[in-house]
Design brief:
The structure is a homotrimer.
Chain A lengths: L1 E5 L10 H11 L3 E4 L4 H4 E3 L2 E2 L2 H12 L3 E5 L7 H6 L26 H18 L5 E5 L15 H15 L2 H8 L26 H29 L4 E6 L8 H6 L3 E6 L1 H7 L4 H6 L8 H9 L7 E6 L17 H11 L2 E6 L26 H14 L10 E4 L2 H9 L8 H14 L4 E4 L10 E4 L9 H8 L3 E3 L27 E8 L5 E6 L2 E14 L5 E3 L4 E6 L2 E4 L1 E3 L1 H15 L10 E6 L2 E6 L5 E2 L8 E3 L3 E2 L4 E5 L3
Parallel strand pairs in A: 1-2, 1-10, 2-5, 5-6, 6-7, 7-8, 8-9, 9-10, 11-12, 11-13, 13-14, 14-20
Antiparallel strand pairs in A: 3-4, 15-17, 16-17, 16-18, 17-21, 18-19, 19-20, 22-23, 23-27, 24-26, 25-27
Helix pairs in contact in A: 5-8, 6-8, 8-15, 13-14, 16-18
Chain lengths: ~650, ~650, ~650
């Protein structure tokens, strides 16, 4: 558990570097990320390299024992390079190139740009790959940020056609798979196929899904190119990338597989403001962030690179980019930091050391003010550094629940939501929230991950499943929850021959004959164990001989189970979803404990952490024997406590 | 009164066709529409025709006594054709071509595409024109769907200039008519005139109106081209087209004039969700549709082709394309079907026989599920088929009220609504609703239609009227209601010299000197017969010596009458509009009877149908002697009843 | 104090001109604006001039003693000119030219268009510059209307690069000033720099600010070109331009400096409907306009051309261009007219003499109806004309309060609002409203204006200040209020080295270390003199040894003062803002008197005017001795009164 910071030596006078490094050390930081936006400073004209400043910057840091994460500078190709090869630019859906002047203006599919990336990453990796202080390399920066995964350039269209030819071998096979006989869309050759964009009404959903898969694959191969070079030149360093919050345009599981560590950039307040949360939640958690936001991503990204996860950028104060930008509660930065560690982060690194007085992010706070004074978070980090030194944690951490999440599920439900606001991401997040509210630790895993050892498996929404998935689930012998739309599509975006849930009907004998989506405000009453609840948004008509656990008033079953496999055919209101989860836990023999509203917990080794996301204090239920290692039973607004577990 | 279905043999294995046809017959269907999206399957490369499959499909259906509606496949020009002549594509207002990959991507003004349509329709009509089972031909599919009436291609611009030259003869005449001296817009030649699009602020309204007229004329002539070929090759078949709901971008009266039957596609739930209805209505009628939606279109399209009307596509379950897609109430499909017949439909045809498991509409339900099982509506259709056999209806149906509707009125009020949300369509629909709520049957007719024989004529909003219209109205000697904006513009989109209502002031001596549009929430109180009501949205200042029937509190008359001609200068709240209609009915000697809220009625021959659009049962007022042929006085949610009328 | 009207002889038969002119005279008008949209009528082809009609029109007016404001016709280059040089057209942010067909389609940066303007203005000014009746010239029409200040044409891009080269001399200096090291944006030459548009995420804010400055400078130089020609040919005429409401895209102070009179177009109802006002205000002031709208602009534009201000276009009835277009209350046109005079207008001119029956503005009312009858406002103008003859006003008018307004402040806060809805314009307007509610007369002045003689200076938000500004303020020895964000940026859009308020910290010892923006509904409670208030939107964390006058509940000072300089670090609710202003007034020794809600006052010479913007009557507090020259203590809805002040 280490602390780090993001630093931009190129933005400050060289005479300040040593002072900065000294202060980092005295603050207790161990890791410094640099370099990821420095291309124009490294190579101001083609092949005119200026490495000396970077050499010295690394030297200043290394000399003080700081380790370095070095970023490849490919997120920002410089102006001269764009002018030399304008085909590098990504293209919007109307064919307009996205212009130079901010960042991430390149197209993942530009072969020309890949050559340039290969060139710059190679020279950089050759120069610093052997440096002992450079312990990790970050590829690029925030893939997909500012909606940059999808591009509609000529490069992309060409690469897409190649990708299709590779996938389908023959155009007849493609026509069959996509069902192009519908609306007279049959193709005679791969060369006829465009990206599915700017059509009069929606394009064929299989066409769209393949474009999403293709675009994701382009990110994967773009990243692999850099990883390969770096591994060759820096065999002992970790290769990482910094993912984003609520980012689903490419398959993070696949990119993560090529990395040593999946890191991510945690901005709880910014994502509350720009997210889908209700007005009530936005007011209640204004200066704390939503209680599950950071944890969801910790648990998600921990599942992308064999369990290794860092927070590469931790919000330290108000940011500049959300619709509104309040400040965290006092103590909140410390709480976010400890929460990350509790969820398995090896590193928490703050963005950024010092607020820049210029440029797009000049209103983004840092650990220090632009004039060099300490900003508010500085002292909270200092406290964490001291606590880290004092705290001993032993034992291992095992989450009892697996929540299965698939990026492809999100693409499929985005392409045809059927109800305007249906989101498999929000639904998965909602399931995750309810699980945490009842005190459970959760691993968010890919459908390809091993599910061995979990006591409960929740699949909120997996429209497509691999052939082996049903038998994998069958072999587990633990309760499994399959949510709506699971098994509803084939790999080619078709309704399965046997109707949904397709192959999963081998686990539970039912089929879905009809789907209703309901506008906000419309709902159906269901009865479960004598109590009435509402279900919303989505209602499947299920044909089955099974006796449902809950039904609508006119007798449609919405929750079925067969042995340990459960199928939930609707979107329950939170209170009913909790009942569903509680029943599954009971069946699993899992102990649960409902936390105070707005509080969450996580076990790390032999410590139980509790995080109070409320803007008021809470008091943990009296439990005489608890030994508190951090805080105490009364947890202040935005605060934490950690007590020892005696297993 | 026949039942039919839409069927896509090209989407299913040939071995299934016979089984499908057998089941159609046993369900009681008599008509099957096929072919309208089959171009790529018919002609996979230029002049490489594959008719055999279609021959066999027709044969399979015909052999079982099913009649066929054959669709010309021009709504979906195939990929190879687009690649050969990209100028076929329609163009958006920024000059971007609308891309291949869905449907309706062609431009009505492409002369090249007209040649191609002529070619494909000719070969198709020559092949099947004489087939005895092919009893009707559908031109294209849903003209204007996905906002495709207006295109801004070079073809369209060129054709527009020719259209203008034909209309105005000299550019001086155009300048005079449009008032181009305003803002220095005078033209020196027709060649200088662009489509009125992408201007800095609004373009000249007369310019805009002419573009709307031109675009409508292009649809008319596009359709005529096909009609002419089909009539030549299939002289005994009906030529039809399937219109849409709330579709006003081209003049359906003019297209309908060239057809034998105006058919339309009735999706009551989809149009409730995507329509302008209030949140309250969307909740109350969630699974029924708005009570006047289907009827309005039945009555409208019945007026387009000399009284002949079909429902070509009837919603059978949830659709895929509305913001939210609930399922109809049990029995609702039967109710919609009977309602169509009661309003004069000769055919009700369901879309579609079997839900497709692939393509854009895979979530659109049919009479059968993708796996071949019956879907819910199947049994309701079966019931209708049986009822049709058993029911005898005698006598003719005459609606006592004419509601005059003009497509041009809609264009004029869209071009300059004056108040942001003013819609002559919504206003006409509102008038129609109130008339039906008081139990009246209504014909919706064009301003060119004969008004002889009606007992009441309602003109909700006719900004322009033909020269002869005032004398036509004067000759009727029945109550006439002229709504706001009627007579407010000349043919050239100018304010008439004598001020509104222009030539109609010969019928009622008043003039409109000023117009106010009011934001939502703003209203004026009016007093009528001692009661207070609110008027909203629109308030005209009327100069007249007539004593108003109702006035605002500060004395502005809002409702005038002179002999039997009434002028309504505002948008009354529903309760007040009902009072207006009731007074007119009284003057007309028309019997009215207010129905329970959410119920509607329609007389067909000697039967009075009552439709319960509520989601709860209603009971018709006790009326001992009524003989019920369908249902009974207690009508369930979404149900119908029909009783015999003893005139 | 004169009355005038806008007139378009080219739109009416010549035989009507004399009658119109006679009626203008009998109505009491003295000034007539003509010609500003007449280019296509003056020059129908290149160098084919038709002056005769204009000669005669001027003659008809002049013969009756009417003075003329002649408009240069450059707001509407005719079609033939656009076809000859399409590069005249402005270009939107996606590179699409804005099309011919409405108005203001030219690009300010087109050098070709400037030549054409020079040509047409020269011939026009040579022809009419010496005409004794042409007492004023209007350059162009409503610069910036329809968002036309910013264009992204090639001409604009080229001119921007020249502008940058002139400003920064070297690209190194530009890189340094903009901080282009951020995100690797360093430039090697001025030629590499594009307009800051269509970037993937926001462009560098200094880049954006310079583009805003450049675009404003283009308007200034475009206007200067015409002014220079007119002054040469018509040395005795006033040169004017007609500004708009809430128009901030170019620096009106700078354009105004080149004019003799800043005139503006006052449409209180249109701007209420399309403005930011609350739903409650939009309902309450539906037919009156917001009580501060007209006054704000009178006071603002009076500060642009050495105190000379006219209303060039006064709304006379419903307009056509707002989302909703109600009519003014009876008497409201008279009230608006008197209010303009009370605020120093030399001329109030109505738009327009007669409503046009054709063209885009056919639903815009005038003093007369299209058929020649008088419209409602006619009689109100007649009344004003008579009152003007009867009323004697003596003495001078001096406003005690200066409110400092900067266009650059608006650009800076638009570029990075930090909170989505932050607007320095709304904030300045809010401060202005509160000052007027407590009965104060206000001059709105530029930061470069002299502040001598004012008793109170309010700077709502000035992110950048000139070097001399702090010492100017220091020398005044009157209370000064500095609002949030003042001094928060350098000239190069950077945070000042010493933190905000930068150089102004010499006046009050504090610094702003952090900024929070708050979503609507979020607020902080503050205590001032024992009472609780809320502050919203914006909250600065201020470091200072000063004892705050008000603080949040957790102790953050939000209002500080040091001697007479006050700093307000937040956006107070109206009641609290009033307390702030009242305290400042007390410190200034300024008498205040809270007016009835919805009423406003203004002193003109020895008369105190009171305007009742309510839709109900009010009664001024009894004050026996008052001698009323207009109206009486009971002021009707939308009415005025004026009484003599005995100083």
């Amino acid at each position: 558990m280490k602390l780090g910071v993001c630093y931009y030596p190129e933005q400050w006078p060289e005479e300040q570097w040593a002072k900065d490094a000294d202060e980092m050390v005295s603050l207790g930081l161990q890791l410094v990320r640099i370099g990821e936006f420095s291309w124009s400073r490294i190579e101001s004209e083609r092949n005119q390299f200026t490495w000396e400043w970077l050499d010295r910057a690394i030297q200043v840091l290394a000399a003080r024992g700081l380790n370095i994460v070095l970023g490849s500078p490919t997120a920002c190709p410089p102006r001269w390079l764009i002018d030399e090869c304008p085909e590098i630019l990504a293209t919007d859906e109307y064919g307009n190139p996205r212009k130079f002047g901010s960042r991430r203006h390149y197209c993942f599919s530009s072969r020309r740009y890949r050559e340039e990336c290969e060139r710059i990453v190679t020279v950089m990796a050759q120069r610093y790959g052997g440096h002992p202080a450079v312990v990790a390399w970050q590829t690029d920066n925030e893939y997909g940020c500012h909606e940059t995964t999808l591009s509609y350039s000529k490069s992309a269209a060409d690469a897409f056609r190649d990708w299709l030819a590779e996938r389908y071998k023959s155009v007849e096979q493609l026509n069959e798979s996509w069902g192009t006989v519908f609306w007279s869309q049959e193709y005679q050759s791969f060369g006829e196929i465009d990206p599915p964009v700017a059509t009069v009404t929606e394009a064929n959903p299989a066409h769209q899904l393949d474009y999403r898969r293709f675009a994701s694959d382009e990110v994967v191969s773009f990243n692999q190119l850099q990883v390969k070079i770096i591994r060759h030149c820096a065999p002992n360093a970790d290769v990482i990338h910094n993912f984003m919050g609520f980012s689903t345009d490419f398959d993070h599981h696949e990119v993560g597989r090529d990395l040593d560590v999946s890191t991510w950039d945690s901005y709880p307040l910014g994502f509350l403001e720009q997210g889908w949360f209700s007005e009530k939640e936005k007011q209640a958690y204004l200066r704390q962030g939503h209680p599950d936001f950071a944890a969801f991503h910790h648990d998600l990204y921990r599942g992308c690179s064999n369990g290794r996860m860092w927070v590469m950028e931790q919000q330290p104060g108000p940011v500049n980019w959300a619709p509104y930008n309040p400040a965290p509660l006092p103590g909140m930065v410390r709480t976010w930091t400890w929460e990350a560690f509790a969820h398995g982060a090896e590193v928490v690194s703050y963005f950024r050391w010092r607020q820049a007085p210029f440029g797009q992010e000049q209103m983004h706070s840092g650990l220090n003010l632009p004039n060099g004074d300490r900003d508010t978070a500085f002292d909270e980090v200092l406290q964490v550094a001291q606590e880290l030194e004092e705290l001993t944690i032993t034992g291992s951490t095992i989450a009892p629940v697996a929540l299965v999440w698939s990026y492809q599920a999100q693409w499929i439900t985005q392409i045809q939501p059927q109800g305007e606001n249906f989101s498999s991401l929000i639904w998965a997040y909602t399931c995750y929230s309810v699980l945490r509210e009842i005190g459970l630790d959760v691993d968010i895993v890919s459908p390809q991950a091993s599910l061995e050892g979990y006591q409960l498996v929740v699949c909120p929404c997996l429209p497509t499943v691999d052939e082996s998935f049903p038998s994998t689930l069958a072999s587990l012998d633990v309760p499994v929850l399959l949510g709506m739309r699971t098994g509803s599509k084939t790999e080619n975006y078709q309704i399965p021959r046997e109707l949904p849930p397709g192959p999963l009907s081998s686990l539970i004998p039912l089929k879905v004959s009809r789907v209703e989506s309901l506008r906000p405000g419309a709902s159906e009453a269901v009865v479960y164990e004598g109590k009435h609840y509402q279900v919303e948004q989505w209602l499947e008509w299920v044909d089955s001989d099974l006796l449902p656990l809950a039904s609508t008033e006119d007798g449609k079953g919405v929750w079925f189970h067969h042995n340990k496999v459960h199928y939930l055919a609707t979107w329950p209101e939170p209170g009913f979803l909790r009942e569903v989860m509680l029943r599954l836990c009971k069946q699993a023999g899992l102990a649960v404990g409902v936390l105070p509203e707005g509080a969450r917990s996580r076990r790390l080794g032999d410590l139980q952490f509790v995080f109070n996301y409320n803007n008021h204090a809470i008091r943990l239920p009296d439990n005489g024997g608890r030994v508190f290692r951090l805080g105490q039973p009364e947890i202040p607004a935005g605060g934490i406590a950690a007590y020892k577990i005696n297993d």
